[in-house]
Amino acid sequence: xxxxxxxxxxxxxxxxxxxxxxxxxxxxxxxxxxxxxxxxxxxxxxxxxxxxxxxxxxxxxxxxxxxxxxxxxxxxxxxxxxxxxxxxxxxxxxxxxxxxxxxxxxxxxxxxxxxxxxxxxxxxxxxxxxxxxxxxxxxxxxxxxxxxxxxxxxxxxxxxxxxxxxxxxxxxxxxxxxxxxxxxxxxxxxxxxxxxxxxxxxxxxxxxxxxxxxxxxxxxxxxxxxxxxxxxxxxxxxxxxxxxxxxxxxxxxxxxxxxxxxxxxxxxxxxxxxxxxxxxxxxxxxxxxxxxxxxxxxxxxxxxxxxxxxxxxxxxxxxxxxxxxxxxxxxxxxxxxxxxxxxxxxxxxxxxxxxxxxxxxxxxxxxxxxxxxxxxxxxxxxxxxxxx
Length: 388
Ligand SMILES: Cc1ncc(COP(=O)(O)O)c(C=O)c1O
Prior knowledge:
The chain is of the alpha/beta class and 388 residues long. The protein has helices at 7-10, 16-19, 39-50, 61-75, 90-101, 117-124, 149-157, 178-191, 222-227, 253-259, 265-268, 272-284, 286-310, 338-346, 372-386, and strands at residues 26-27, 85-87, 107-112, 128-133, 135-139, 142-146, 162-166, 194-198, 228-232, 246-249, 315-316, 324-328, 348-349, 351-352, 363-367.
């Protein structure tokens, strides 16, 4: 049973979420959850510490096997365990892969609003991010974002070398459908654009959302497998970001040949705690994950209803996975950076929308992977500013 976290216990955590602000600020940025981690992972880590098993990371074939079994059981995606590679985190995997596969100076497409580090990673490898805004669609009272396929084809035609996709997409909360991913795969195959698919939030897809199910990009088609690389991690779904371990793989012989030139250090810079915890997560903490998914889905609804009742001019796009809420505050006239006003005037911290691309001006991203009490307090604080 996963319990509601208590603020006094959270305040003594040493992670960035709980260190960045003083105690008067209620922190809801940073994509980590406030729940206690899965008991199986806790027990594994305890036993490693008891045994002083705190050395370097060597070969961990059991991680490839654990992920392959998880992917087959959850998503019906057949993966050769031997193809799974390890990096310290998703960010470093994407940077290292880009160094090997994408010429410096290339343009790389991203669909905005998007997790802010996509643009940072692209700049880190000397390339240029090309922002393409997603298109908002409105269906009755429900709003969501769609990919701009005409814009994607134009960008591919104009010579972008790669397209970084966020599947599922942080911050807008969408899990792409099979047909959307098929369209990307077909276009990318036609124009020979490399697709780097960040799938870190995939395991947190809600069971009852309109999305139905998460589709790993490489599971889509031969075309997808010929031009794609998937990067994932247990770090979001099981809340292990500080343990530093991610996985990535290609199912293309040609890409795998090129990936052979990655330095060995990409593997051993990951941590032993992270790798062994990921094995435990994929093999033994699936019930815990199912509980978390249910809790998050209920919390997303709780937040949606709360905002509708308390701040009707704020709009939360209905999340289909995870613990991140993308909120449109433009109708409240709080300016381009409402996050700054909430922080200074109401002592509640969110991620400012404009950091996810220009189209995020007037939005915030809120992390609802916490207690109902903290969510209520955050909305109460928001309300103070909204009233002005
Ligand atoms: C889409 C996405 N990718 C990557 C990351 C960061 O992952 P890592 O810490 O493994 O680099 C995050 C964290 O919020 C994320 O939301």
